[in-house]
Amino acid sequence: MHENEAPAQPPSGGQLPSARTGRALAATGPLAVGGGAVALYATGLDPIGGNPLGTERATVLDPDARLHLIRRASFGMSTALLTDVTEKGPRRWLDEQLHPDRIDDSDVDALLAAYPALASSAAQLQQKYAGARRTPGDELVAATLARQLWSRRQLLEVMTDFWSNHFNVTTPGGPAYATKPVEDAAVIRRHALGTFEDLLLADATSPAMLLHLDNASSRGDDPNENYGRELLELHTVGIEAGYTEADVRDSAYALTGWGVAPDSTFLFTPEAHYTGPLRVMSWSAANAEAADGFKVGADYLRHLAYHPATARHLSTKLARRFVSDEPSTELVDTLAESYLAAGTGIIAWLRTLFDSREFATSVGQKVRRPLEDLVATVRALGIGPPVDDPVPSLADLVRRSRDLGQAPLGAAAPTGYADVAAPWLSSSIALGRWNDHRALTAERVPGLAYPELAGLAADSEPQTVGELIDALTTRLTGQVFRSDHRQVLVEFLDTDEDRLYVAAQVDGDLPDLIALILDSPYHLLR
Amino acid sequence: MNLAERALVTAAERAAADAERRTELWSRGFTRRRFLAGAGMVGAAALGSQLVTTRYSYAAPGTGTGRALVVVFLRGGFDGLAAVVPAGDPDYLTARPSIGVPAEVLLPLDRRFGLHPALGGLHGFWTSGQLGIVHAVGSGPGVTRSHFQAMDHVERGVDTPSTRTGWLERALEAAGPGTTFRSVSEGTSLPSSLAGLGTAVALRGVDLVTLNRGSERMTTALRGLFSGLDHVAADQVDLALTVLSEAQALRATPYVPVKGVSYPAGNFGSAMSDVARLVKADVGLRVATVDVGGWDLHSNAGPIEDGDMTYHLTGLGNTLAAFGTDLGERLADVTVVTMSEFGRRVAENGSGGTDHGGGNAMLLLGGRVAGGLVHGGWPGLATEALVDGDVPGVNDYRNVLAELARAQLGIGSVASVFPGHSYVPLGVVR
């Protein structure tokens, strides 16, 4: 894992003193509220260490920096995670997460032994699974969910999800069924915290992508535009870069001959490569020799990786994932500069993001999408992996995520899943979320290691009903609810907050009470 | 487990099986595609000020009965040239030597066109004058060959990014208030065409509108937990709880299609069956949307006997035919229209498929459709007639949709539905 934390490029025009920290934003950004606040910020206060401008919040969520970081950089809080972040401090915890190989993850690795497809080559997969009911893709989807639920390398899982969605190969099913697990390990996970340049080249040569978007059957004398188009629109510069249909055609031509060998590995076939001059926006190549077709294609991809439009497109998506649905132009610009200055390095780019003032002040601006809600529910409840065969339990959870419209790796369109709230707010999804909360508090998913619900509050030794509710909301969402919302829960129990907590009277209601806490905005927002 | 719970579990299992089946079979292209990014629902403040939704209730039978428009969106780029084949055009088989449909297997439409045999289930509706077609439909100015951009344009119904609402939402606004079920998306979420106030209902079949352990005490608490929260999520909580309470009576009677009708297995079949159920239940349904994926066939579309295109068209044709037959006399009130973001390139590519193209075909099914006709202009497939290898979109999709919206929703002017567009009816409605 390389770092690529090159020093920030000197700012153009001299307005931005530091592209890496984004601190200059305080003076010009839309969130600047006054001289005092800017001064406070300019003292060098650590943005991930706290929110200096708490008054800007319009959310019910607690702005505690640890909780904020956990909500954004992981798939949701667990007691162990909160303890970890508290002990190390947000900055050291983040450092560690940016180097996942330093984090022991042997428990989840042991669990994944139930999915042998993950450790197989594409050729083995093809042979072994021909005609099998459960495909390598099914195994990968379940394993992906297992890692989101229980891996300690949470930021790696978030970034793996981010890049899998960016380079979406619909899984399971489709022509990439035998190759996607290989891509997941050798492309996405390997480069998730490396450089985008490496990631893009690895993806473009991965059989899963070559098959999924048809480049494997694109020939110089009869090109298939599918990959060449999505490479520009989705993977790199974005549609706003203003390329033409002629650019799309040459984008496809540049990569003709890039295909898949019978053993499901990458194969360049010079005979299938188009020869002749190529031009895609500012990139051009003489492309005179078919034998040089791989070099030409690789040069084209490197050009795209470093294109300023790519930097902006990717930075917009990153900010949308971690900060808000509509990140500011200033933040996107800062991230784009950081991305280019670090040679497309992803770690430096993420540091810029987490150091930004806009990140610090964005508490509660994201809505958990259905899969994120489901995973966070299991994590908050402290539900552990099955002691026995994990396959049926995870298949049940995958089915639930699919019913919510967001199975892991399952986006049908090459764009991947939308990373904003609106498409995920519907009457159907609302009911689906609530039913899943009830299923999990009632132990309806078979085989999982469920904790005693009463035990979730036990550490605080609550004496009254009010204390019980506070203990539960704190355990599940990290905070005490606003008084009116707290009162709703008291009334649900048909009692007073000062009434003595008598387990025999209340514990029967715990599955419903806890489901309600998970239905609430304190779990829905992040 | 009592009977109701068992029914719920059965329905849930069926839906899960359907979803898995669809993912497995239709995975090559799209099943769902949501592009509300940046075109989200407006805030709570706007609710109520522009629209009063009178809630449907069984105590008031007959509310909001009447006509309905069902919009079936074929995600991924439908190949109108495979479905409605310009059989007599000498350039057709030249452009599609391996996947073109030969004239002898087509079902006769008019002198110019024949219907793909996989759509045979619909041919009877053509003969009876309830199926109309518009070919060479264009997706409006400024549309490119990007799925994302083209869907975004045609679902919002405008070519400017500033209008954030969907065309169906604006059509409903022009039609005036209605019931809870006046606009329903059969699926997990809403399409961009219904983006706006957030009053449209999304459901995966009436039978799945349930809340486990959802007592009144529970739903009261749920509402309470979102009180005082100025967030679109709070509006959806309110809507979901309203739908939940109103669907209760509707769910009580299991739906049985008319004798002899069986909807094809899969999500599209269940969705259309559920639309028929809502129509017949007279809950005030005016607009329903259904998505069908799998049309982005860049490779291996053939062969005619059992290829991917035939598979998808069979599902489409048989489901629409089942819906038409199931509705029976009620088809007089209902119009189904199929649309897509763009058509396919005239010439096939080297992978036995087609790349993104231009002009496309729309299918119109209903008792009020001027059926048995291919409407609008047809430029032909001669090289000089094509634009960048595409059939030019000589018939603007907005003219078709506007005419249907006027007929089905009783709207006068469609100026607010398709702002900036001069409406010219093609005569697709009787």
Write the layout of secondary structure elements.
The complex is a heterodimer of chains A (526) and B (430).
Chain A: H1 25-28, H2 35-42, H3 65-73, H4 79-88, H5 90-97, H6 106-111, H7 122-129, H8 136-150, H9 154-166, H10 180-191, H11 196-204, H12 207-212, H13 226-235, H14 245-254, E1 258-260, E2 266-268, E3 278-280, E4 283-285, H15 293-305, H16 308-322, H17 329-341, H18 346-355, H19 357-360, H20 370-381, H21 391-403, H22 427-441, H23 465-477, H24 483-492, H25 503-506, H26 510-519, H27 521-524
Antiparallel strand pairs in A: 1-2, 3-4
Helix pairs in contact in A: 4-5, 8-20, 8-21, 10-11, 11-15, 13-14, 16-17, 17-18, 20-22, 22-26
Chain B: H1 3-25, E1 68-74, H2 80-83, E2 84-85, H3 90-95, E3 107-108, E4 114-115, H4 123-127, E5 131-138, H5 147-156, H6 167-175, E6 183-186, E7 201-203, H7 216-225, H8 232-252, H9 267-280, E8 287-292, H10 308-327, E9 334-339, E10 360-366, E11 374-375, E12 395-396, H11 397-409
Parallel strand pairs in B: 1-8, 1-9, 5-11, 5-12, 6-7, 6-8
Antiparallel strand pairs in B: 2-4, 3-4, 5-10, 9-10
Q: What are the salient characteristics of this protein?
A:
heterodimer, A: 526 residues, mainly alpha, two-stranded antiparallel ribbon, 4 strands, 2% strand, disordered N terminus, B: 430 residues, alpha/beta, 12 strands, 31% helix
